[in-house]
Write a structure and sequence with these properties.
This is DUF3108 domain-containing protein. By secondary structure, this protein is mainly beta. The protein has three helices and 17 strands. Helix content is 9%, strand content 53%. It has a 15-stranded antiparallel β-sheet that branches.
Length: 278
């Protein structure tokens, strides 16, 4: 997903996924993050532990408004759909839909689907599907992850090509990494590392904890939150991404992504803001 598209497309997906993929210039009154401060006015260092729920809530639906340079350009829908079997294993089926609004579609239409299938016991990705329509770009592909053999099989449903490549132990895909983080017990004094595979490439996702505070969402209210910065690096340690991404998660056991912001050269600032939870 990250290597075959332009950086503009990757940033749009990151903002839509927080998910997972995303200080708030251009957001108006719809989103505000207030850092925790001491009585003398200094920022309180991030510390402590947060215990997670350790399972996904089947039926959960999250809706995000996506803004580019402060202008609404689309919506992203995250859905924990159901539990199905992949190769005899129970897996959570989680989908993300990203759609441009009428304004952006006149310039650059986006209609994307992403599906991850997360092993219910092992909590790593078993399958990843993406179907993209972004401007003139099209893709429709499936990646099956065989963790016993440490290989993945890529299939393009557009041209029929099939490729097999090696993966690292407990590898996640782009989307499953976001959801895996949500159900981890975390120590805010330590960074989180995850192995991720996308577009036949292995890379390391490092999640850095920045601040604790509160997020104010116009349609939802005031929520205790943690601010994190995900950084993608290649397996040789070199930085993969050109811009920066920040994500604000709820500081409770559900750890719902509340907002995300991505900044990159040329593209500018893309923000995703939670507007509805079901």
């Amino acid at each position: 997903m990250w290597q075959k598209n332009s950086y503009k497309n990757r940033i749009l997906f990151t903002a839509g996924c927080l998910l997972l993929i995303t200080a708030l210039t251009g957001c108006g009154s719809s989103f505000n993050f207030v850092r925790s401060m001491s009585t003398n006015g200094t920022i309180i260092p991030v510390s402590g532990n947060i215990i997670a729920k350790h399972e996904f809530r089947v039926g959960e639906k999250l809706t995000y408004e996506i803004k580019w340079l402060g202008v609404p350009v689309g919506l992203a829908y995250f859905h924990v759909k159901k539990i199905i079997q992949i190769d005899g294993r129970d897996c959570y089926h989680i989908s993300v839909l990203v759609k441009s609004n009428v304004f952006l579609s006149k310039i650059y239409r986006v209609d994307d689907e992403f599906h991850t299938y997360i092993d219910k016991e092992k909590l790593y990705s078993r399958r990843f599907i993406k179907k993209q329509q972004e401007g003139r770009y099209r893709s429709h592909e499936i990646v099956d992850y065989d963790h016993q053999r440490k290989v993945a099989v890529y299939k393009s449903l557009l041209n029929g090509s099939v490729k097999e490549f090696s993966i690292r132990e407990n590898t996640q895909d782009d989307l499953s990494a976001i959801y895996r983080f949500r159900i981890m017990d975390i120590d805010l004094g330590k960074k989180v590392l995850m192995d991720v595979n996308a577009d036949e490439k292995d890379w390391v996702l490092e999640i850095r904890f920045l601040q604790k505070g509160f997020v104010k969402l116009r349609r939802i209210g005031r929520i205790a939150a943690i601010e994190v910065e995900p950084v993608a690096t290649r397996t040789d340690g070199k930085k993969l991404q050109k811009g920066r991404v920040w994500i604000w998660f709820g500081a409770d056991e559900n750890r719902i992504p509340l907002a995300a912001q991505a900044k990159a050269p040329i593209v500018g600032t893309v923000t995703a803001i939670l507007t509805d939870v079901k």
